[in-house]
Sequence to fold (494 residues):
Amino acid sequence: MAKSGRNLVLTTISLDRSSGKPLYLQLYRELREAIETRRFRSETRLPSSRSLAQDLGLSRKTIVEAFEQLVAEGYLDAKVGSGTYVSRALPQEIRKPQIRSRRASNAGVPARTTSRRGQEIAGISPFFPAVKAKPFRHGLPALDAFPLKLWTQLAAKRLRSLPRDLLGYGDPKGYRPLRDAIASYLGTARAVRCEPEQVVIVAGSQQAIYLAALVLLDQNDCAWIEDPGYLGARGALQIAGARLIPVPVDEQGLRVSAGVKLHQNARLAYVTPSNQYPLTVTMSLSRRLELLEWAQASGAWIIEDDYDSEFRYNSRPVASLQGLDRYGRVIYLGTFSKLLAPTLRIGYFVLPPELVDVFSTASSLITRHPPALEQIVLTDFIEQGHLARHIRRMRTLYMERQSDFIEAARRELAGLLEITPPEAGTHLVGWLPGRIDDQVAVKKAAERGVEARAFSTYCLQVSARGGLVLGYGAFTKNQIRAGMQRLATALSNC
Fold:
């Protein structure tokens, strides 16, 4: 007969609500450690998520998220109608203590483990897996519309006449002609004020955020992040040692006044002002100016992540925050992963002049320099006008796919998901009725072959309403229709 773990759980769990670390992550680690050290024996029945939430003073979503991660990693088994149990099939190294001969061990020398930072990394939820995407994965461009033939032709032409000196080590700042092309493009398309010398090429925006955190933050420095906000930025700042200050977002973007009340002297603020992730709202001009004034007064840096800014449907793209900055406090970053294809792994900084050298040195210590061929081909693609034409085509295509998505959702999901068309980007948030838990909805959708992310996972504070983050940019009309039917079936069973 299975043993109850309720009392054992309550005496084992210790959460620090002032640490800035997500509560679900703290709970996950506490439970995992209890299982690994065999304080929770095999087949121990854990209390229900509802009762555990009441006992620990947490939201049920926090409990469910921790449980689901442990189920996914094989530590727990969830049995429908019965409960959640410590798995019988734990990895061998956990179930049985390792027996080492005295000769093979070094007496008195502790076992080698990962660093604290390594443990932080291990506890961060991964991104979507590198497998074929299913509707409605977001963050993915329309790969079916990528100009592959043209790109192949440009690459082949360059390879036939590639100078041998480009086979050696390159500039840590990146290929100079590409930096020229990016500076010219940003000045025209995004109202960014910069010279090519301020552009540093990196391996995508994710590396850019991590590098910025390493260069600008010391251990336990405070950083504002949008709440809800981008998980990649949250994770990068977290493993760099930052203390996260979740600042709420409303229909005008980041609430700067709330951030000042929470922690006025934060060292850094990470924002997505042109197309807030995941809510898709645009930061108002008054909020932008307020944020810049705060940064100047407090000596803080602002990281402006300008993803998907080109794809705006009812008006021209909103000018960048960096273009309004009179103080040199904004670090602008962009990526070609959303414009073209993630496989390119080409992103870039636009830095205040005094930060260029330290950022390029930090980048060189991690990657030495970006790969040359992709930079060269991308330079040709931009300079020959192909990028501008591609963006125009994609804007039209994404607007059509958004329309197909909204039409299918209104037909299939009436009463199950409330959807409002966003003004920009390639994803949206659909709001669930109060009776449906978004973590449960994601699991039910996955069982039907539909990819979605629970809105609550993007929130450090408890979200007032559950929702699903759904992408439409990467999928055809037929894929959208079929996926919507499967999603409707999944939500009907929640």
Summary: The chain has 17 helices and 14 strands.
